[in-house]
Amino acid sequence: QVQLVESGGGLAQPGGSLNLSCATAGFAFSTYAMVWARQRPGKGLEWMSSIDANGRHTNYADSVKGRFTISRDNAKFTVYLQMNNLQPEDTGRYYCYKGSRSEARLGVFSDYDYWGQGTQVTVHL
Tens digits of per-residue pLDDT, 79-92? Predict the structure, then answer.
């Protein structure tokens, strides 16, 4: 049974940082790409970052490029999203998605097949 469990969300001040984790189980983690997405209040799902199976290639949405860093630890079956210089517009629920192959394109939903319940991030003074 595939499981993805996000954690690390919470409250941050503008300019602050959070490090999200997505612990996984039930599949060969090291052979699949992983993706982070978020849903902001009143907005649609936004694809933020992807990482390929071996961690060599990453992609970012323009809105988070230079502030967020995706990484993975295949020995721990976990993918991370380090978020720096957080802004109020980063408030939302953050989800990790499992790719259906070793590489995954941002925004191509057919490239993903499972996702977690999400973790809430709130940024305000």
Answer: 999 999 999 999 99
